[in-house]
C-alpha cells in the first residue's frame, strides 16, 4: 500500500467520494486543470469532468453562494477557498445561509456542503496567505469546524465532512501538507466528527491542540518524556460541536492542561476550552490552565512568522510551569 | 473607429397606464381572457392580503412587515410564468409570485409574526423554493447554484431570483449573473426596480441609464420592462424562461415599477420623498390599467370586483385566524433544527434552557 501525505489524503478522499456518490462536486479557483494551487484536486477534473470539478470565476462570494444553491438542490458540493485569508467574502453566505438554512426553514431546506481551505502559517507565503481564523467560525451555530492533522485523519474526516448532512468548514494545515507520509487505505472509511483524538497517553499534563500544532505538541511531549514528564496529547480535530468530555476526562487524570493554537490568543478557541475547564473541571485542576498561542497581532510576513507561531520550547515551558505550580 | 461591442436595451410595454394597448402583437396568453382574469384576481387578492398584513402589524399582531403595494403586476407576472419544477429565490416582498406558487398567507404572517415555521412552505411548488432572503441579493447566488445543479444533472429547469434596484448594486448579484454567463446557466435574474432602497433613490444606486444593461457585462440577454404592465412582465418572463430551459442562456430583466408603500412598517417614506412623486406613481399603478383593459373586453365589471374582493376578505380572514390560532413553538424548537442530529454538547445546553423554562412556569 502506498504511503501518502496529508494533501494526497485529501485528494484520495475527494476522488473516493466522487467515484461513489454522483452528487459530489468540487468547485473553486484553479481546482480544475491546475489541480488547485496546492494540488489538492490534482487529476480530479480528468476523471470526473469539467462540470463536477468546476473552475469558477475568481470571486469567493460566488463560490460560497453557489455552493449553498448546489447543496439545497441535493448536490454535495466541496468548495475550495484558495487560502484561509481569502475566506472573508464567503462568511456572509456561510453564516447567514449555509449554517442557518436548516434552522430557518424548520428542516425543509438543508446545506450538506463542505468548505475546504488551506489554513495557517509557516510556509513563507505572501501576506494574507497564512491566517488561522477558525475561531471566527466556531462561534457560528449550525456549523462544524474540522481541522485534520495527519494523512489518515485528513482522509477519514474529509469523507465524514462530505457525508455529513450539515455544512462543514474543513481547514487544512498547509504547513504539514507534506510533512510526512503514512499508509492510508482507500477504503472509504470515515472517521467520527464528534470526537477528539487522544494521540498520546500521559499522566502528568494534558496538551490540547489542533491543526499544525499537533506536530509541535507531540514533539514537546517527546521532550518532556526525556525529562520524565508524561504528557497526554489530544487533537481536538472537530472544534465545534466540541467533544469536551474527552478533554475533561484527560484533565481529571492529569490535573494540568496546556492549550496550544496558532490563532491570536484573545477569544481564540483555546479561550473556550479554558473557560469550560474553569466551569466544569475546576476541582480537578492542580495548576492554572496555560495557553500557548499566537499573540494578538497579525501574523507577520514570513521573516518573522516562526517567531509568531507556537514553538516546541514554548509548549515544553508551559507544561513545566503547570508542574511547578503543583 | 473600430467598434469592439455594441448593445441596446429593449423596453417592453403592451398596456399604458390607462390600459390602452400600445402595440397590437399581444402574446398568446393575453388572448386567453379567462386566464387574464385569473391573473387580475390574484393581483387583487395580493393587494387585499397586503392591506390585511399592514392592519395586523398596526394592531400589534405582526412584527415588522415589508409591503408589496404597487408590485402586483411584477410579482404575479413572475410567478405565473414559472413552471412548477422551476425554483424561485425571492427577497422578502414578492408575495404575488409566491402565492401563485403555493405559499399560504398564514405562512407569510407566521414569518413576519416571529415564527420560523412560516418558512416551512407546506405546498408545492413553493415547498422546493427558497425562503425569503433578508441579506440583500445573497439569494441570487442560491439561484445560480441551483441553475448549476440543473445543468450538471441535465434537468430542464430554471432558477429565478428577484432583487430590488438596491440589490442590483451588490456583488452577489454581479457574481450570480457573471457565473450564469460564463457557464451558460438557466438563470433568470429579475430586478424589480421600485425606485427606492429604503430612503435611497434609484439614481444613487447606479449611473447606468438602465439596470437591465448590467447583464450585458455578464453576456446575458437583457430587457427593460414596464413592471406595472403584467402582459409585458409575463411575456418577458416567458421568453427568458424558454431561453434558459432550452440551453440558450440566462437573462437579466429590469421591471420598472414603484414602491407605493413604505419600505416596511418600520419605515416612514414621507421623510425622504414628496407627495407629488407618489401621486404620479399612483397614476401608473398596475391594477387600474389591467382592470380597464378587462372591462373594455367585457370580462370584468364592478360587480365581479366587489364579489372577488369579498371572497378575498374571507380567504384572508381565514388565514389570519389560522395564524392567530397557531401556538408558539416549544422552547426546544430553537435547538431542534440547528443540526440534523443534536450534538451531545448542544443537548446539554438545550436541557439547561428547558429546565429554566420549566422553573419559569
From TrEMBL, chain B:
Keywords: Oxidoreductase, Pyruvate, Thiamine pyrophosphate
InterPro entries: Alpha-ketoacid_DH_E1_comp, DH_E1, PdhA/BkdA, THDP-binding
Cited Pfam families: E1_dh
One Gene Ontology molecular-function label: pyruvate dehydrogenase (acetyl-transferring) activity
This protein's record includes keyword Oxidoreductase: yes
Catalytic activity as recorded in UniProt: N(6)-[(R)-lipoyl]-L-lysyl-[protein] + pyruvate + H(+) = N(6)-[(R)-S(8)-acetyldihydrolipoyl]-L-lysyl-[protein] + CO2
Xref: SUPFAM superfamilies: Thiamin diphosphate-binding fold (THDP-binding)
EC class (word): oxidoreductase
PANTHER family, per the entry: 2-OXOISOVALERATE DEHYDROGENASE SUBUNIT ALPHA, MITOCHONDRIAL (PTHR43380:SF1)
Record's function text: The pyruvate dehydrogenase complex catalyzes the overall conversion of pyruvate to acetyl-CoA and CO(2). It contains multiple copies of three enzymatic components: pyruvate dehydrogenase (E1), dihydrolipoamide acetyltransferase (E2) and lipoamide dehydrogenase (E3).
Descriptive protein name: Pyruvate dehydrogenase E1 component subunit alpha
